[in-house]
User: Fold this.
Amino acid sequence: MREVYVAGIGITSFSRLEYPLVEIAAYPGLMALRDSGLKKVDHLYVANMGGGRINGQTGLASAVVDHMSLTPAGAETIENGPASGASAIKQGYMAIASGMHDVVMVIGAERMREANPLEATDFVATLTHPQAEYIYGVTLPALAGMFTRLYMEKYGVTARHLAMVAVKNHKNAMDNFYAHLHEDITIEGILDSPEASTNNPYVADPLRFYDVCPVSDGGACLILATAEVMKKINKPMIRLAGIGQATDTHCVHERKDPTELLAVREAARQSFKMAGVKPSDVSVAELHDAFTILEIAESEEVGFFKKGEGHLALERGETQIGGKIPINPSGGLKAKGHPVGATGVGQAHEIVLQLRGEAGKRQVKNAKVGFTCNFGGFGNNVVCLTFIKE
Amino acid sequence: MSVDLEKILRPVDTPLPKFPAKYMTLANGQEMVVRQAERDEIPDILPHVEPLIHVERDFYNIVAARLYSELLAYYTYRVQDEYVLVAQIDGELAAIVNGRSVNPDVGMSYHTFSLRRGLRVGAHAFATKMEYHIDILKQKEVLIVAESGIGFRRWMIEYNLEKRFHIPHELGGCPSWSLTKELFDKARNTLVVGRRPVPEHLLEKAKAGILPPSDPPKGPEDLLAATRSMLDSTATSLIEMRRKHGGKIK
Assistant:
């Protein structure tokens, strides 16, 4: 198989974007073309989850490829729930590694805020089992709330640990122009003050408002290319070195121990093995913190910390920028935002910025190996990526 | 025969009890003071409202325009029994809420205007305004309308307001909704926050001057500027976008 590199990147703000979905997708694509210096691509993959349901836009890739004047390049839309972004990157990787194409554009785009918050929550809840979960009113925050309660009882995670994740990621997002939330929250403001219960009300006990990611619009893009193409453009050599993907039961209650995220564990293992690195080699990671508990749980499952000790590492400051393994320097889903289909590409965008040394104030020093975990459903379809700076 | 027209035009205000200032900690740890603005402070407030008349987002334009006229009417004695509360963070103007007393039993909420977005600044200010009507003015209900979806979620849904659609609200004649004392009491422990007395240093800072908001609401960013620049050899739109963001856009 041929090696695959990142030739160009682009991103929109992850916030509320008052433009059609097609243009939210096209903008980061054009930025990535400019970043790479390339004019054409062989193929376009567009990751998106809600275009048909929320925006009345199906066949998104066909619309985007024409909107960007990239015809006659092939184009396909990839839908794999919130893991759509990393799945699309995986497709791009395979297209180049196999020798089928030399330059592939991967875009993730979503416009969720066209729906009201109740509709958006209901839309995401369609990821759950229709007969065993959804009809009983299960939503993703509800599943995460139950998961958090179990985690607290089993491992001693407290509300303060969850708040620490939120505070850390909000702080990181303050240095990310493209982040959805620029609110430098404090433990006092969301947990300790007399007003905390109103500032930070319960959403799905024990999860509170600041434990949950916002509903975002946004787009991100990676252009993937062969080593031969990279020789022709003057960009840092960031190699997509490892990809892992794994699944778990659709219904969370069918898992032997719901606190174990086996798909995360397996996808990370595959990704590290393919890249030839260990979790301890990772300089910077973007984990799928749709809920604060997930950053803690995923940091354990991918192998950064022992099971049940992620919150202790958090206490020691090991996941901060400047710590042993900085997690979510972009602000993560928690504060950077979560436009579901775009999230996986957005995570990769941040890692490429970090490995290039272009992350500005939130730059992780000497970043050589970067890792992303894109978590679909409630952990039933997970894609992990490992990037290496050469 | 001379006539003092001003005496005819100027409504006679009913003496209303003053709102006792309060303060609260926001999610970012900052303390926000909410206090009653005196009539002679209105000229200090107006310059911070006027620019938002031109922000076409979340109905800031219409709310700013209407609020500006209400503040001006208050300042020039052209509205009866109006009051204005301001929320300040480190002296900076964070929110303005206003309304008026229709009669001893009924209040009329005019506007809730956040100059600092997020952190429930507007929600806290609105709750404080309702506290003024229900607890201080001892009114039985407050008539409310919303001009934006954000307002509708914050007031009509969060407080579960009752319909009073047969009563046209003074803002555009729209059907009114009502916050009754009973509804307010239900919300008291979850939505209404704040402490008294306000520490001297916080109150002094607030009264020392109404400072302009450091990060006022802005219109949507022109994210299509890059797209347009591809078709525009002068790249004017992209240059303009970069200028707006202090060169932060690549």
